[in-house]
Amino acid sequence: MTRTVTPIVAALAVLNVLESREVTGFVVVPIPGRPPSDHFTAEVRTEGGDWQAVYVAQTTAKNASAADAQGYFGHLNFWSASWLSIELASTTEVIQIRIQRSAAPISAATVHPRRCNATMGGITAAGAVVSVAGPSQFTVDVDGGLDEVDTGPKYKGPPMHTFSVFINPPLQSPNPKDPNVTYVAAGAPIPSTIAPNTTLLFGPGLHRLAPTPGRWPVYTLPDQVTVHVSAGAVLHFALNNAQLGTTIRLEGYGVLSGEEMDRCNPGSDSPQALNQRPTHAPRLPGKIAQGQRQLDHSCDNNSPQGLTISNARIATVTGVTFVDFPNHHIIAVARREDCGGAVEPASTLANVKILGWRANGDGVHVFGDWAVRDLFMRTQDDSMYTDSGTPRPNCPGTTFTRISTWNDANGASFIFGGTDVTLQQSTVLYARASWGWWTGGRVFANRQQSGGSALLVDDVQVEDLMPSLNAFELDFRCGESASQQAGLTMSKATFKNVHVAALSTLRDCPNFGSGCNCVPACAQGPLPAGVPNVLLGGPGQCNVSSMTFVNVTVAGVSMATALTHGGLFNVTWPYVHNVVVDGVPVHPPSAAKLF
């Protein structure tokens, strides 16, 4: 299928695939009614086969300088993210992808994460070739891209345009003619009643709900129904279960889009609450705010999440891509009252992709016992929260496996906290920020939010060679709330095989930086090691205990050295106890008092 397939022909082609449920080699489904990428083209072939031009999708960050900024960042005005979504015929299929940039031929390219099963081949006048064996999620950074350009706070260059690839495993697509399938064509209304134990199938094309005055477009997922969003389908509305469903199932290789959704209540005629700032936004001097953030005209953000699951017992969410919602993309609560000693989590979030541009557009937060795996998240607020709530009796802990994160303007990779949680085999692709002196950002962050115990972080690679901020912001000091004053503690946390490629790129502390988010406050002047990493507790009941580091490095420096090196890692030693690095207890420097 080529980039020039008409919407009608594309729709018929998708229906043929849906009805036959057969995929040979691979399939790339165009999105009828959505233009292809302005910046990249692609061709795909099986080994030894002929090249086929395929559809590449694109999302673009809107102009934050507009009268109603809608939570977009001025730093990212008109940036774009192009993506290619492929379904394989089998998980062992080997394909090649040839990528070309529209503005100028590609002369160099690198695949991230490096651990993915994609390898760069040759680069010719026709483009850069990537070989991929089986399902994978990755981005291809080309010359002049983020590997070469520091797009952090000081970046003043043109919009950046990126290309990512989502190669999906084979999926048994429902047949629209099956009597147990309710098929909804693009433009058609969704039936008001869907029978349990059936399938609701959204066909290719653009789907919108009939507008309701004063309400955001939200569809309530039916209980015990499989909702399948076909490749080639875009749902321009949010989903929830209205706290009613016991079993929620959402699948497919289509798109859920918030691109047409405002932060402001649809019933209002104009943005309200001027100067209402989103989470983590600083109160900056006027000129800096105008140049760096340009969010002052956004109203109070009460818009819906892309997917909200509440009070479910079991949920399964697989395959879909979320694009540019003005609020969190996924918040999912699915809990069993008693798991009966089950070893595996009951709920699954897998092979989900998120491409977000806005403040408050966090990635994923699940509550309950979940297996979360194979996520690709590019967000401009916190990508993921490890705290999945208080474990229920006899229930296994939540696991996060093969997670890729990417931040350009704001947000942490992982908000670190919770009980009985494992994060493993994951990669931070880019950790950039548009502003250097706020508490947002970082890779591992706890901003005096929650404590935890029995956390394991194993095999996390931070690949970014130009991260804007420090990687560790583990701040368990007592906050202002009553619960935080009562005791914010972290115990029995282990970091294994964690490697941070580089130090923060911010190497000077300006006079307007309010201590430049250092603890203790940094003086105006040079920051030789960038913004310091921190491990903080105190006063009173707020503390850190029994924290273990095994084979952990920051810019090639061992954690044993980093923890005792002023400026590289600041530690409130009186409130941090029993730290062990590579089997050896770490004692505070002899000169240490508070730090």
Task: Tell how many strands the DSSP assignment holds.
Answer: 43
For the residues shown, what is the average pLDDT? 87
- Specify the overall morphology: globular
The fraction of residues assigned to DSSP E strands is 35-45%
What radius of gyration results from the CA coordinates? 24 Å
Q: State the helix count.
A: 4
> How would you classify the helix and strand content by structural class?
mainly beta
Task: Explain what this protein looks like in three dimensions.
This protein is mainly beta and 595 residues long. 5% of the residues lie in helices and 39% in strands. The strands form 6 sheets. The chain has a 19-stranded mixed beta sheet that branches. Strands 1, 4, 5, 7, 10 and 11 form a 6-stranded mixed beta sheet that branches. A hairpin with a 2-residue loop joins strand 8 (118-124) and strand 9 (127-133). The longest helix is centred in the first third of the chain and has 14 residues, at 7-20. It starts with 6 loop residues before the first helix and ends in a 10-residue tail after the last strand. Residues 1-13, 17-22, 269-297 and 591-595 have low confidence and may be disordered.
